[in-house]
């Protein structure tokens, strides 16, 4: 059963990287996509086990200037079933000079992240969980090697310097194809409108490159992850 594999790899990441500890209050960044929905389901189930004893809350951030939508009623129903409290946070992109300083995706991501961090501190959360999965990790690794000459990627656990918050990614070991298959099996509802700025990017190129590398070596994912862990 696919859920058993997802649950096992979720626990493997949590134990291997020390992502969850007794007393943690974890805020989930719930975008409404399949990855964050699975993350909410897994953390909601973990919170019911009491070992370690954690508390979880999901936060969905809406950016005023972005014309894409998620069904809030569906998110509420989903979180109710998972036993996770849902909060909706509205924010907007501030441009004091009236000029576009960064690209659209950067601005949206930055303000969403800021809203999550601000609310986490208000709620007393010491950790924020994001739904980045194994494919995100490997694509980022390839992009950093090719474009920046750095052997780095998204970390499973990152303690912030300027505030008492740690970012965690419990899906770090889980393949996207498994998440997609489970989302279809469970009939996860998709967003009503996708981001208007979605487009082919260097991340798309990295995905194609990883697919080519897998043809050369079917175990390339394991090799890359092993190299990162070393």
In short:
It contains 8 helices and 6 strands, in the order H-E-H-E-H-E-H-E-H-E-E-H-H-H.
End-to-end separation in angstroms reads 31 Å
**CATH-derived architecture:** 3-Layer(aba) Sandwich
Mean of pLDDT:
89
Shape: globular
CATH homologous superfamily (4th level) name: HUPs
Question: Which class best fits the helix and strand makeup?
Answer: alpha/beta
Describe what this molecule looks like in 3D.
This protein has helices at 2-16, 34-49, 72-82, 104-123, 134-148, 176-186, 202-216, 220-229; strands spanning 25-29, 55-63, 85-91, 127-129, 157-159, 166-168. Helix content is 49%, strand content 13%. It has a six-stranded mixed β-sheet with strand order 3-2-1-4-6-5, with helices on both faces. The protein is an alpha/beta fold and 230 residues long. The chain has eight helices and six strands, in the order αβαβαβαβαββααα. The protein has one domain: HUPs (Rossmann fold, 3-Layer(aba) Sandwich). Helix 5 packs across helix 7.
Topology:
Layout: H1 2-16, E1 25-29, H2 34-49, E2 55-63, H3 72-82, E3 85-91, H4 104-123, E4 127-129, H5 134-148, E5 157-159, E6 166-168, H6 176-186, H7 202-216, H8 220-229
Parallel strand pairs: 1-2, 1-4, 2-3, 4-6
Antiparallel strand pairs: 5-6
Helix pairs in contact: 5-7
């Amino acid at each position: 059963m696919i859920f058993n594999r997802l649950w096992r790899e979720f626990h493997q990441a949590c134990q291997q990287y020390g992502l969850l500890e007794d007393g943690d209050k974890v805020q989930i960044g719930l975008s409404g996509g399949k990855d964050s929905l699975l993350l909410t389901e897994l953390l909601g189930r973990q919170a019911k086990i009491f070992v370690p004893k954690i508390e979880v809350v999901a936060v969905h951030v809406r950016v005023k200037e972005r014309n894409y939508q998620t069904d809030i009623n569906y998110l509420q129903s989903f979180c109710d079933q998972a036993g996770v409290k849902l909060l909706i946070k509205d924010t907007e992109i501030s441009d004091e000079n009236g000029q576009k300083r960064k690209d659209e995706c950067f601005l949206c991501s930055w303000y969403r992240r800021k809203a999550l961090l601000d609310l986490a501190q208000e709620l007393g959360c010491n950790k924020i969980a994001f739904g980045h999965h194994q494919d995100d990790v490997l694509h980022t690794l390839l992009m950093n090697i090719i474009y920046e000459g750095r052997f780095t990627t998204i970390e499973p656990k990152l303690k912030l310097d300027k505030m008492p918050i740690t970012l965690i990614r419990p899906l770090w070991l889980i393949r996207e194809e498994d998440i997609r298959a489970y989302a279809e099996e469970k009939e996860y509802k998709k967003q009503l409108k996708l981001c208007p700025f979605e487009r082919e990017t260097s991340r798309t190129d990295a995905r194609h490159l990883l697919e080519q590398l897998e043809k050369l070596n079917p175990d390339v994912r394991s090799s890359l992850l092993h190299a990162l862990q070393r």
